[in-house]
Each structure stands twice: as structure tokens, then as C-alpha cells.
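Dear colleague,

As promised, here are the two records you asked about, laid out in our usual form so they can be pasted straight into your sheet.

NAME FIELD: protein one
SEQUENCE, THEN STRUCTURE:
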Amino acid sequence: MKQPKKKILITIDWFLPGTKSGGPVRSYANMLDHLGAYFDFYVITRDTDFLSDAAYKGIQSNAWNTINDHTQIYYFSKEALNKRNLKALLDNTEFDVAYINGIYSWYFSILPVMLLKNRRNVLVSARGMLNPQAFSVKPFKKKVFLAIANMFNLYKGVTFHATNKEEAVHIKSIMGDKNEVKIAANLARKMESEIISKRVLTGPLKLVNVARISVEKGTLKMIESLKTVETELILDIYGPIYDHDYWGKCQKAIAQLPNNVTVNHKGFIESDLVLDTIKTYDFFVLLSEGENFGHAILEALSVGCPVIISDKTPWRDLVSKGIGWDLNINDSKEISNIFEYISRINQDKYNEMAKRAFKFAKHFSEDEQLLNQNKNLFL
């Protein structure tokens, strides 16, 4: 007799069809896509996207929306989102495991733990929020919250999800050894079976950056690293402006670049257009302070686009793999040298890198062990 599928409840601030909040939405979307055959998912989220006040079109707010045969989504309106309504929804929803995204969100991280930890199996996905680089933004508030949470045993009996061994160590260093930590890397977006046609290196070299414009994503550092490039080069940036003062600094840096370097801000890009957009560029660039996973990096590789990234992500030793570079973002000379090198790369060398990038991503996306790790989060 076929066993009924386990029911997994997910709480997350923003979810599909929204995509502006970045990596977590992609992580959960990929998980639901891969694991829908094994579990039924119930997602509780907002009815607006990140940095938006407009409700999504085509959804019913404050109600369950059936998305497919394994996913239902409850979209809270701003007016209805409060502790009483959230508690009532949790009390009246049948599920086996609660999977809570993040640490600091009142309605989607903190309250769900408070309301559920004594009644359900609760799994918290830290999403890199307990990693050292995450404390470069609002460190005092975060440390005060974590101290209070530990004082009152907020996470007692809760299991944590880490995407790699390094993150598991960071979680233990803050939460102590009282919590179980399960390790499972994020799942990739399902890939095409064959590599896209090779790009021909004609005209200016074309670089692409897909990330919100913010300090932690290293937008300014990336722009400033182009100052010494002597050949013609174009960098297109796709992503919402997270910090307008910071973007002002970026614009000043762009104005000081040599005439042979062009930088364009292309605005926000919808998730379903990311792959088709990246595949038209020669290299992907992301010099962030750190990535817990870095979906855009993997997606660039998946369309045969070599990458230039920081050494603070899980994607390491890229030179030996022949798929790009992972660089010390504090070594501006090294970064500039790489930009100069790729601006002179020959077609055969580039074709080989593109082929290796695709094969690397393909192997990662089809890793059966990775799929089982994610299944075991809920078993």
C-alpha cells in the first residue's frame, strides 16, 4: 500500500511569483520542483514582492492557492498579517514538519518558532544568516537578538538546516551543541540536456552581474576594479537598488571609468528570464562579501558562462576546474589582472571554459546524493 506523502509547511517572507528578494526564493522553488514527488508543500508568505506594496496579480490573498498537485500557497495581505491570524492559520493547517526560513523575520521566522516548537517537528533554515559575513549589516541588533533568543531557549528542540559543513560550524558556534544540524546543499534549477550554442568573442567583452545593488554584494568594488582595464569591455548589472546612497557612490565610480569601459544598470530581471539573459554574455561577475549558496553563480555555469566571483562562497578552486576564478575581494590588483586577462582571452580557451562550466553544473544538478540529503531534511 502506498504511503501518504508527508506534509511540509514552509514560512518565508517572500515567495513566487515574486523574485526580488533573491536566493531564498530560488532555493525553495527548486526544492519544491525536485521534491514534489515525495512531499506535499504548504507555503505561507506575503502577497507582495520584496520592496513592493502591490499584491501579486492572479492570486487570492488571505486564502490557500493551489499551484500544482504538490504545492499550495497562502498569501497574507499586509492588513491581515498579525500574530492572531498567523496563529489561527498554523493551528488550522495540517502538516508534519514546519520548515522555517531565516532567523530575524518577526512573522516568518521568530513567531513560527515560538508558536510551533513545542507542537511540531521544526526545522530552521539559517540561510547563511549566522555566518560571520552576515554580521557586516546591522551587527548590534542581530547579536542582541541572538543573545536574548539563547537566554530564553527560543530554539530549544529545534533542528537547523545548513547548506554545507562550514555553515554547520557557524550555527553551532552561536547556538551551541544543544541543537541538531542537518546538512544539505541547495538544489539547482533543472537544466537543459545540452549546452547552449557557444558565444563568439567578437567586439567588446560582455560581462553580466545579477544581484541586488548593495554593499554585501560588492557592486562598488566590482565597478572600481574595472579602472585599469585597457581594452573595450561592457558590464551590465541586473538587480534592484537596495541602497540608493550606495548606488550613488557606484554612479560616481562609473563616471570615473575610462572611455573603453561601459557599465549599464539594466534594472530588475524576472527569474524566468535569468538563464536566457546570462547566456548572451561572456562572463558572469559577483564579487560579494559572501554567499551561503549563490544560485546566480550556478545558473551562470549552467548556461556555459564562466564566472569571476569572490572566495567567500561554496564555489571554490574554480581555476583548477577550468570554469572561472574565485578571488580575494580585498586584492584589487588581482581582480583587475583577471579582468584584463579575460579581455584578451582567445576563442579556443573560452570555448573550453564554457564547456567545462556547463558540465560542472550538469553534474551538480543531477547529483542523487544531493537529492537524498534534501529529502532527509524532512525524514
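NAME FIELD: protein two
SEQUENCE, THEN STRUCTURE:
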Amino acid sequence: MNTDKQLLALVDAAFAAATRPEHFTDFRHCCECAEHDALLRSRDRDSLRIDDVGHPGWDPLCFCSAEGIAYFFPALARLALAAPSPRHGWYGEQLLFHLGYGFGDNRFLLCCGTAQRQAVAALLGHLIESRAALIDAGGCADEFLRCHALWRGERPDTPREPCR
């Protein structure tokens, strides 16, 4: 992938069939889950914003089903490719957390088909190549490389939780 536009087209195609779930979280679990579900239900792939998902301490995707993440993944890729937000910083680091959490047992990884995994790996590779300064500034280079290898189907030697 040479450009952000090409990468987003690849991600859009890979996740085009990911349907919007009726609910994104176990909304009956607690008030926090209900609030996150209500927020995600009020958004779609075009209207999801950094303000919705960019705060590590209050991130609805931490409670979201894998199917919900798949539905929103084109929007998440768009946020990761955007310039850092003055309020939230660069979304790529937050997305890295979701893509690497649980390593080989990552719920989103396990839910994705081959084309979707390849699209996520392509996004990670593109971020590594085109956003190296942001990755270095966040001190997450090793985590990005490890996560990239995971989504390519390799098993990096030492699983660690990605930076957040």
C-alpha cells in the first residue's frame, strides 16, 4: 500500500460485509456497559469520532464485541491514519492496544477471516512505514512490530501487552 487512500479502500473492502450488531456491548451488565453501548449505537462507520474512542480510560471498544469492532474497523483505520488530536493524541497507539490485547487469544483476531486479517496487517505495516515518527514518539515500535507479525499469522516469540 502506497497511500492512506489505498489502504482505506483495502480495509473498507475487507470489512464491507461486517454487519452492524444490534448491541455492541453486554449492555445489561452495568451502567458503564450500557453507556458505551448507547454511544456506539448512536454512531456508524462515518460518524464515529476520536472523541468517542480516543480516551484510554473511557474507551467503549474495551467492552465492545469482536463483531462490533469489525463493523467499526474502517472508521478505526481512518482515525489511526488521521493527524494526532490535540485532546487525545494519536489514535494509532490506542488501536494498537485493541489489536494486540490478549495476543493470540485476541477476540477480534479470532473473529476475522483471512482477508480481514490481511487488511489489518496491511494497516499495521502502513502505519509502521508511514507513521514511524509517531510510533517512535510513543515508544511503541517493538509492540507495533510484534502486533504486525501476529496479524500476518506469525507467532512472535515473546507476547506482551501493547502500550496504551
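A couple of things worth noting about protein two: Residues 4-151 form one domain. Residues 158-164 have pLDDT under 50 and may be disordered.

Best,
R.
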